[in-house]
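Researcher: Quick test of sequence recovery. Tokens follow.
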């Protein structure tokens, strides 16, 4: 078997959670082939890398904007930059990447129906106090989804924390005017915030034995 770049790296990371059961499987000749183990491991690794890079780029820019312009300036910056920045990172890998949540701030981040399903599954795990791990799922014959949980960290609370406690008052004002429908408030350190949602093109020829 041809060893795909990165598979070995991934296998050392452990906690492989793969499921291909997001939709009832179509039957007959149209049914897509389930992901092979090599494909699943490959997309798990690619997804992890892309989500990690996106997180690092986004949070370092956010911190720089916070330091330079304070929370209100950083919010304005986020509003303009977050989604286009993610798009440009993903384009290089012919993928799409976005963040989504059951409690959204920007209406553009609202989940599609598959993301909604995935979010609900993660929410159920949170309720059962289970550990959250990334997942690879087949969307259809040509598309693979990668989801990774996003957790709230102390540096997020200035803009996603509890009013009168951890939420920064200047940020709170700026958020109220920029996002009148904001649901992404009231979080505590360690809370589950949402998902990285990445879609890759599936090319089974890449994995010919
Ligand atoms: C300076 C304020 C600020 C900080 C700090 C901040 N965020 Fe946000 N966050 C925002 C804004 C503003 C948006 C909406 C961005 C947009 O309009 O695209 C947002 C959107 C998001 C989204 C996208 C989903 C949605 O609700 O629209 C996620 C997920 C998210 N933040 C998680 C985090 C996490 C995790 C941290 C800490 C690592 C964090 N944020 C820190 C201001 C902040």
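Model:
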């Amino acid at each position: 078997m041809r060893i795909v770049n990165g598979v070995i790296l991934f296998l050392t990371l452990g906690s492989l959670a793969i499921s291909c059961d997001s939709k009832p499987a179509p039957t007959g000749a149209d049914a897509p082939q389930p992901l092979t183990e090599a494909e699943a491991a490959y997309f798990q690794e690619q997804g992890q890398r892309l989500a990690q890079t996106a997180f690092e780029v986004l949070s370092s820019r956010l911190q720089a904007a916070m330091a330079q312009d304070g929370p209100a300036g950083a919010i304005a910056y986020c509003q303009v930059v977050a989604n286009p920045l993610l798009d440009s990172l993903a384009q290089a890998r012919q993928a799409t990447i976005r963040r989504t949540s059951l409690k959204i701030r920007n209406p553009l981040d609202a989940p599609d129906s598959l993301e909604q399903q995935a979010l609900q599954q993660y929410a159920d795990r949170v309720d059962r106090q289970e550990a959250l791990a990334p997942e690879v799922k087949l969307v259809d014959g040509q598309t693979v989804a990668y989801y990774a949980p996003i957790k709230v960290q102390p540096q997020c609370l200035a803009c996603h924390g509890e009013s009168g406690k951890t939420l920064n008052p200047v940020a709170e004002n700026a958020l109220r005017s920029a996002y009148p429908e904001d649901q992404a408030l009231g979080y505590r350190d360690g809370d589950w915030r949402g998902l990285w949602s990445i879609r890759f093109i599936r090319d089974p020829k890449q994995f010919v034995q």
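The helical segments are 7-11, 37-91, 113-127, 157-160, 169-178.
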